[in-house]
Amino acid sequence: MPADTQAKAPALSVAMSVYDGERFLAPAIESVLAQTFEDFEFLILDDGSRDSSLAIARHYAAIDSRIRIISRENRGLVTSLNQLLAESRAPLVARMDADDICLPERFARQVAFLDANPDHGVVGSWSEDIDEFGRPFATGGRDHPVENAEFARAILEDRNLLCHPAVTYRRDVVLSVGGYHRAYRHVEDHDLWLRLASVTKMANLPMRLIRYRHYAGQVSSRHATEQQIGHSVALMAWRERQAGRPDPTAHIDALPPLGQLDALFGRDGVDREVRARLARALAFSRTSLAGDGFDHIMTHVQEGGDRVGLWRTAARLVTFGMPGRAARLAAALVHAG
């Protein structure tokens, strides 16, 4: 890359945070460097990795001068994402994770869309889901909404709006709503989309421009229960803003545990609604049913919550090899009438 390209701001900043990501990092970096759109800087922030992630990133930085390494102690993903936003020099920022793979046309297509649609602040794409070995991974989920008009309906249906590592957004628009909020650890992206929905248009390109990896060690597998709670609370906060009331989560460092959400929002029924959503969302998660997600479902039943579908959850617990929990849930359902 000629030296004078470093003097001017690039058209695009690629923002990647890495923490102990050595297993998949090299192909992720290579997929960015192989983009047909070349006018970008590539910020790789190593968030205190204990493995060889930093060495891998430095290897590629020595090969391609568009890569800029940021290395420091571990501070967590939300802090890292906000730092990457602050240090990006381009008006557009493309998110990328250290375990996914961009298809070569991703940046070209997303930059072209934002250039042609100045009223849109965010554009994502559909994803091709793969497992840890790069094989097709069946999720059974719906594709993300495409046009901005579909997003309002998707919010009301509590659907996922965008695939975070597949988005490109306008830096100034994201900064105008305060960037990523600390309270929404593991679901910071969904909270951001809900806040952006009030100030800009969003879209997804109906093409699979990223290969999104699923494996046991990723955040969505290890923190499924916490993610679902955060997802539901973010929707409650969105409703507060839509009603013209202040968002009680905007300036807190962490969400309170279930049982304290009524106090946070200053009204009754928030805890109950979040538990009901949680009971539905975790019904198919082996990890959550084996962990604290099961306790939340039991509390939901014992408090008289909606029991639709929970007999099937009890049967699923047997299939998952948890007959004791299946018996406990069945007994609670019988007792609840």
From TrEMBL:
<dbReference type="InterPro" id="IPR001173">
    <property type="entry name" value="Glyco_trans_2-like"/>
</dbReference>
<keyword id="KW-0808">Transferase</keyword>
<dbReference type="InterPro" id="IPR050834">
    <property type="entry name" value="Glycosyltransf_2"/>
</dbReference>
<dbReference type="InterPro" id="IPR029044">
    <property type="entry name" value="Nucleotide-diphossugar_trans"/>
</dbReference>
<dbReference type="GO" id="GO:0016757">
    <property type="term" value="F:glycosyltransferase activity"/>
</dbReference>
<keyword id="KW-0328">Glycosyltransferase</keyword>
<comment type="similarity">
    <text>Belongs to the glycosyltransferase 2 family.</text>
</comment>
<feature type="domain" description="Glycosyltransferase 2-like">
    <location>
        <begin position="13"/>
        <end position="173"/>
    </location>
</feature>
<protein>
    <submittedName>
        <fullName>Glycosyl transferase family 2</fullName>
    </submittedName>
</protein>
<dbReference type="Pfam" id="PF00535">
    <property type="entry name" value="Glycos_transf_2"/>
</dbReference>
